[in-house]
Prior knowledge:
Blueprint (H helix, E strand, L loop, with lengths): L5 E4 L1 H5 L3 H10 L1 E4 L1 H8 L12 H11 L5 E3 L3 H9 L17 E6 L2 E6 L3 H10 L5 H16 L2 H12 L8 H14 L2 H11 L6 H10 L5 H4 L1 H16 L12 H6 L9 E4 L2 H6 L9 E4 H19 L7 H9 L6 H14 L1
Amino acid sequence: MAQGPSLIFDKSSLESLNLDEAVLMDNFYMSTITPLFFVECLADLEKTIRSKSTPEQLVGSLADRTPESQSYPNVHHTTILKAELSRQFDLGKVYGRVMLAGGAPVQLGDKKGFVFRQSPEAEALERWTKREFLEIERNIAKEWRLSLNRVDFDAMVKGVMGELGHWRTPKTLADAKQIADTVIDYMDPEWLLRFGLNLLGVPEVADWVIEDWTNRRRPPLRDHVPYFIFMLTINIFFCLVLPTQLLRNVKASHHVDLAYLYYLPFCSVFTSKDNFHAQIVPLFLGPMQTFVNGIDFKPRRRNLWAKASVRDGCRRGTSGAFCRWNQQGRMPRSSLAVSAARRVRTSVR
């Protein structure tokens, strides 16, 4: 049975963990694996590196450390947005938990439930943990790097601010978040729907969405389409901040870092070593959510490791997973833990 709070991590956090620490993270957290994590890591397959290791070896090292026994692939944010707009998704029912794909309603007699068949996201995660980088993944990596080269922040800001009109320059990042919220709450709702759907890349559904909203007597958009509003607020915030010096050294890759924020409703804890995330993520978290800087996340793992070792009576340097295996006479739950346990047994001999 799954245990622990739901966690989203990015590539920078996983890179800072060794294999034993990754096993421990898999034990204490339910990991929400975002599609962006795969793309971010697979992009390294097309990266020129100054190292004796090959790109495949470096990406494979990340795959080895990726949580497996308590990891769940989240649906792509565009799919979730379209589901909400078509009234097939309610953010309030899944907030703080992973959004899984592949669920189909079933009924047997008077009993009802859902059957979850393996989704494309789950298949990709399984291949990832086995280091099976198919051609489709390599093509995704190539396209991701090409798309970064096409990012034009100046054009994006000009287009968005041209539609929104003149707003004062924010003095802090928190001030920019407040201005973005003000834009959401005080602009004409019907105009905001059309503007937001166009900005988020789904202009073709605007007429149906507005008709549905009108038929429901025009409820507040924050109640009617909360995930749409969440995504739109992130984009408006970013466009308000970019012309200022509140965020320094903005790079094309920050466009992907920003998209990580779309998945914040599907976790309890978000961790990253990226300074961009450290500054922005806390502004978009709810009262029951936490941001942990990746720099602090590693020492906390060490503390948990020490407590687990004392509790289980393990010798120093062995993993908690190995201790449970050794004492209970059964295999650890994760293949990561299996490899760690085998390595420990070899060293003990």
